[in-house]
Structures are given as structure tokens and as C-alpha cells.
Design goal:
This is Lipase. It comes from Listeria newyorkensis. Helices cover about 40% and strands about 20% of the residues. It has eleven helices and eight strands. The model has no long low-confidence stretch (mean pLDDT about 90).
Length: about 350
Amino acid sequence: MKQTLKWIGIVLVSIVLLPLVAIFFIYKKATGKREYDPKVLDNLEEAAQDYVKKTAPLSDVDSRYKYIRLAEKALPAAKNIEVGEIENKKIDGPGGKISLRIYSPEADGPYPLMVYFHGGGFVTGSVQSTDGIARKLVQTTGYRVISVDYRLAPENPFPAAIEDAYATVAWVSKHLTSLRAKSKDIVVAGDSAGGNIAAVVAQLAKSKGTPNISKQILLYPPVDIFSRDASVLYPSMDEFAEGYVLTKESLDKYFKLYLSGAGDRKYDPLVAPIRHKDVSDLPAAFVATAEYDPLRDQGEAYAEKLKDAGVPVYAKRLEKVPHGFMSTPSAATDETYELISEFLQEKL
């Protein structure tokens, strides 16, 4: 009897406790060590303060990214943001299948189309992590949003993400009828690393002559090198190097992971779209930056470069928020969605 109870105990530990311990370990590694400088909180609006308090700095992202990815898979859908039909789909890409999540408005089509690229430093992030943003874009703009799960570094370093992104927009342009598109015009959009991808895809489409991208929405994008030496060009890299979750050190690590094996191409416009010599005739751009973001200055520099080249640009610096503010409901987030909706309605 004692032997039987012993084996029952072993089985229970194996089936119940060990998985729970594993889940707890993954959660702790994914969330990291939550610490913040109380002095920075006075600079931020209330929702941003809460975000900084509850989110660990990303300076150790090189040791945490695999756990962050696992945690992102368990994120619940933002079902409180109601939209119409949602379809998960796989298409052929240059490196295998590309997973898409297609969100439709509640109203009947045809619809204007937007292709959305998530953030995450090219290393983390997914259609699940930006489910709320995609839903809100559908709800506030009336667009059908195609969210893209592009390949991530370091397993798939540059240019894998760009290849998948361009392949997806090309696929969309060839399936306008089945997507119930209102026109052949396609808007590209993205936050953080996704903003970089959207900017690069807009440049590629111009150089190749296809697909027809009408507008680009870039939310706090890195558009130049974002390694440590970027601070020589962009003071915000040093000004907000610590204290606002995304740190100078984390950017340097993201950059190295993204360019693994391709460091000699760090000034390539496919990495740093601001380095493209000719940015004229690009699609009209909406560029949102965050006041307390190490990437702020380069996003604003790109907006200026586009303006100087004659591209219609609406640039807005959102005050009292850090990088990644779109993931947290706030006054700045609501304002950004309103501005995006207005930008999309304008005939430029």
C-alpha cells in the first residue's frame, strides 16, 4: 500500500506540480526584474506611470527573449474591442509559411486594406501581442487589417523580416477580390520595429513599382541604426537611456540580434530607411513619436527628411509617454487612433 501511495505521489508531482513550476519559471523569466526610478514617474501621464512600474527594463532582452515569446503566446485576445470576422491564415513566403491574422470591421465590405507589422525589436512580438492594436485600428478606421507574423531574429536575422513583409503586401495586392478590397490602394503600418518594416516596405514598393502603397503609418519607429553609437546622431538615445523600459542597452542588444551575421549591412537602407538617398515620391506618412523614448529623435528626423523631399507628412510627438505607449490604454493612445483615422480620411 505504501509503495502504491508513493507512486501515486510521484505521478501527481510529474503531472501537476512540475508543469506548474515550469510555467512559473517561464513567467518569471519573461517578466524580468521589475524596477524603476521613482524620479521618472513625474514626467509621465498616469497610464504611462503604471506601465513603467509594472514592466521590467529590457536591458537583459538577450537572455529573456525566448521566455518573452512563450509568454506572448499565452496572452488573451482583446475581445473587449469588438470587431467583425477574424481569420487566421497562412500564405507562402520566401522562408516558408507566413501566418496572418485578418481582422474585418463589423460593417459589410468592400473595405480599404491595411497591412500591419508588430513591434518587438525584430526579436519578439506576434499577431497575438498586437491583437488589441489591430482590433482598435479596425474599430476606429473601418479598415480591414492584415496583421503579419514575420520571421524573428536571431534564428532568422535580417533580411528575413523584410522579405516576409514585402511578400505579404505583394500577396495582398494579388488577392484584392477575395479580400473584398475597396481599391488597389494598400496602407502599411507598424509600431516600433514594425514601423521600421513599414517604412522599408514603402521604399521597396516604390523602387519595384509594385504593390500600390498609398500611405504609411509609423509608430515610434527605429529608422536608423539603433546600436549604442546611434547616440552620436540622436541625443534622445542618451537622454532616455534608462528608466523608461526600452533602454539604450536593450536597443544595442536588439540591433545585434537582428543583424546577426550581417553587421556589415547596418547602414543599408533596408535596415535604416533614413539612409536612403532618395525618399521623394514615397507614400504620405503619419509618424508618431513618444516624448520619453530613446528612438524619438530618429523618428522625427525621418519625418523631416520626408517633408524636405516633398512627401506629405503628419508628424506628432505624444507628450508624457514612453516607447510602446500604444499597448496601454491612455489619453495619448486615444489621441493617436483619432489622428490616424483623420490621416487616412485625408486625400493627399
